[in-house]
Amino acid sequence: MNELIRRDFPILDRKIENKPFVYLDNAATSQRPKKVIDAMMKYYVHYNANVHRGVYHLSQEATDAFESVRGKIARFIAVASEREIIFTKGTTESINLVAASYGEANVKEGDVIAVTRMEHHANFVPWQQLAKRKKARFEIIGLTPDLRLDPKEIDRVLALKPKILAISLLSNVTGVVNPIASLATRFKMVGSTIVVDAAQGIAHGEVTIDRLGPVDFLAFSSHKICGPTGVGILWGREALLEKMPPYQFGGNMITHVGDLDSEWNELPHKFEAGTPDIAGVIGLGAAIDYFETLGRVRIEEYEHKITSYVLQKIKDIACVKLLGPREALHRAPIFSVAIDGVHAHDLATFLDMQGISVRAGHHCAHPLMFAMKCPATCRASFSFYNTLEEADLFVNALKESQKFFAKKPKSPENGGVKV
Ligand SMILES: *Cc1c(COP(=O)(O)O)cnc(C)c1O
């Protein structure tokens, strides 16, 4: 699907050290197609004005463009009501909003809040801290040796009837896809409210609320689906959002302010205090259009091909340890690797010398990395605009790296990452 698509992304023409730029850090942020950049530029050049405020032409145009994106998002994730779509500044803020507003109002001392060991810090720490504030029990669903959710651990935590289950759709470290629909059905039966971190999931497949089962909240970021940074989405069930107190106070979220008390605006504005990232939301709208034009099922099928291909190739390199499952089933093209005796940062620097951009570190997942006794990995994360040739470059560079580092005297610092 690739050559034509790559032309939509001007940045992919760059050279790094005179070599073609191979961008494999899509799990941190994706690149943006020209259409997204143009849509934002057009707003600033032609109709820049604040939204929801003015009666004049430009403010109306800006408000219409901004609000039309709400409808696009609702259709994108297949929900009926635009009132359930809240603009935030990212997945992190979306989850913090739920933990602070819903969590503060509903969790009581002794209640159980459950997360999994594969969560990104953004879907771990807000719940951990809520549990601390409320004297609630914080339970972590453990993983199998290949880093999928452990069925015994799911049963254990299910029996505790958690008030809240916060879980990611897809791990940003291992690429594991969780069976949200069946989990949501089971946890709903014991009365849990289910919060889904879809920051990665939304980038790699067709995520619609009807197919996720009885979930209550869904959070994702614009910048991982080719939109700009600084914008995120929170979807929540209207009945829950209606009862939740505001998260922040200020302009736009208010209908009346008295000396002693105030009245809140209706949904979704109740949760959107202050001037939003207007250009960012308009850019996200263009990114959604772009995704719809390519087709999310097509993207998923193509990425599955990359996943199978890389897994097959990595298998043949003896020194490379791959975190997580080795089969392509229910797995996205995100590969965290470690090489014995080579520090993850050295490996990432070596790859960068070949023009290949990967991420080295803990990937905002300390609880997972600690459980693995693995302080850092090198993570290559592919998107639909990456090619099989780029996969070959990555795999060959991994092979080369072993020879390269073998020549170096071992220092205590590169004494190795054990998986
Ligand atoms: C990137 C990511 C987040 C955080 O997203 P922000 O855009 O930084 O708020 C949360 N969860 C997962 C799984 C992620 O990959």
Q: CATH fold name of the largest domain, please?
A: Aspartate Aminotransferase, domain 2
Low-confidence stretches: 414-419
Using the CA coordinates, give the radius of gyration: 22 Å
- Small molecules (ligands, ions, cofactors) in the structure: pyridoxal-5'-phosphate
Intertermini distance: 35 Å
* Overall mean confidence score, pLDDT: 95
User: Considering the protein shown, what is the CATH homologous superfamily of the largest domain?
Assistant: Type I PLP-dependent aspartate aminotransferase-like (Major domain)
User: If strands are numbered along the chain, what order do they take across the biggest sheet?
Assistant: 4-10-9-8-7-5-6
Number of helices: 14
CATH architecture of the largest domain: 3-Layer(aba) Sandwich
Main sheet overview:
7 strands, mixed
What portion of residues belong to β-strands?
15-25%
Structural class: alpha/beta
Overall, the morphology is: globular
Main attributes?
419 residues; 14 helices; globular; Aspartate Aminotransferase, domain 2; binds pyridoxal-5'-phosphate; Aspartate Aminotransferase, domain 1; 16% strand; alpha/beta
